[in-house]
Amino acid sequence: MEWKDSGFVLAVRKHGETSAIVELMTERHGRHLGLVRGGRSSRMRPLLQSGNSLHAEWRARLQEHLGTYRVEADELRAARLMQLPLGMYGLQVAAAHLRLLPERESAGGLYRAALVLLENLDEPEKAARLMIRFELAILDELGFGLDLEQCAATGTREELVWVSPRSGSAISREAGSPYEAQLLSLPAFLTGSPPNHIASSEALEQGFRLTGYFLDRNVYGVRGVKPPEERAGFIRKIVKALE
User: Fold this and answer.
1) Is the distance from CB of 30 to CB of 85 less than 8 angstroms?
2) pTM, full prediction
3) For residue 196, what pLDDT is reported?
């Protein structure tokens, strides 16, 4: 068994004296682990850093085996990410979310979304919007997608300002007013705002509360694990940068 693909490094752990087990998020083969022989050498260590993009060739005798990777550098962004205030926070949050996916199942859309996120962690407001949309995409991929296109009560697409915490569906201002205290806020940038729309710090916090609620209830909570601690740090950095 063998294939070639592009991917970026989620994590690396030591294996034996000289090798490393590398976890990649790949374009066509999903989240996939493999052994890199000599992965702890001075030549390979700079490549095998979280956030770096690689060209990978995976081989194994049987599909279910761990297999081995041969890798070449594509884009080595790890050093740049470490220098950014949001860099490592954003990378670790994205990696934690991607680990929710089943291993070896293709998720090309999420792979590409993660790369866009990693390339924009130097712009706090944009990075926040991208992370919120990335979290919505994770929920959708796992079967818990939110319906933010129209009001669940009336069918209207106008003035969608809340989300039902029970159904994950949008609620219009008119339909939700009597129940406002029980609903989650839906920020305008998630309801068809122009691409150049600048979201306020308050709107971004609303977005993170929205995705955080459903991630915790439907994904992390039911698995008996806590959301990544870096997520709170990422949000604090965003809020501070936009003050």
Assistant:
1) no
2) 0.95
3) 67
